[in-house]
Amino acid sequence: MSDQDDDAVVERFQPTSGRISGVLGLIVAGVVIVLALAAWDAGTALGVAIVAVLGAVLVWAALLRPALWVTRRDLVMRGMFHTDRVPLAAIDRVRVTQVLTVVVGERRMVSPVVGYSLRQLTKARIQTRGGIEQPHLEPLEAKDPQSGAPLESAVHQAFVESRIDHLARTARDQSGIRPGSPEQHALAHDVRRTWALPELAAAGLFVVAFVVWLALH
Asked: How far apart are CA 2 and CA 73, in angstroms?
């Protein structure tokens, strides 16, 4: 199988929050930029425009850029300024709280794409203290009792956690890799991180531009 086949997207996971806020943030930034350009001068309007563009870059990076998907070989976790490609068979543990946490060897990688809201977690803690079970916060229960495959009808956060765990276990079984074995530990070194250079460059450029503007005014 070619590297291109290995990089083919098998499944994408929908984010649980951030998209609406991100779009609204970009719209607000766009309106501010237009107003600043309409009243153009090298004074306050220029400073406002620089801050608005910097805000748009940060809103994009923080709320709209993050994504989570699976290829034939890897779990891909695209964050604010970098992307991690994690071999499925190397994954030791997956847990969804306010964020998705993936444990690979001694490393913990976090994705904000999928997570429970603070209200959901608080409600679960209160009900747990009262002796009431909160089944939707137990993702590994969201499985078909016969096949062991995750149920798509489960709460989305629970489904994502269970699905990634299922794919990691399947990848290990297909490769003949036992959990905790030297072979799995060796795979942990294959985690690849690439940096989002356009976003980093844009953020750095407009931070410098704002500092220069402040120095001149």
From this structure: 11
Query: Concatenated DSSP letters for 138-195?
Result: -GGG-B-TTT-PBPTTS-HHHHHHHHHHHHHHHHHHHHT--TTSHHHHHHGGG-EEEE
Q: How many domains does the chain have?
A: 1
Give this prediction's pTM. Answer: 0.82
Tokens 């203290």 belong to 129
Looking at residue 7, the DSSP 8-state letter turns out to be: T
Distances (CA, A) of 39 to 26, 42, 103, 199: 20, 10, 51, 27
Mean pLDDT, consecutive 10-residue stretches, the chain (217 aa), reads 72 91 95 89 86 97 97 96 97 95 94 88 65 46 50 77 95 93 92 96 97 90
CB of 56 closer than 8 Å to CB of 205:
no
> Is 175 within 8 Å of 133 (Cβ atoms)?
no
Domain that holds residue 171: 3-216
Distance CA 143, CA 140 (A): 7
70, 76 contact by CB (below 8 A)? yes
User: Which two three-digit tokens encode residue 77?
Assistant: 């976790």
- Minimal CA–CA distance to 18: which of 9, 26, 7? 26
If phi > 0 it is left, if psi is from -120 to 50 it is alpha, else beta; for residue 200 that is: alpha
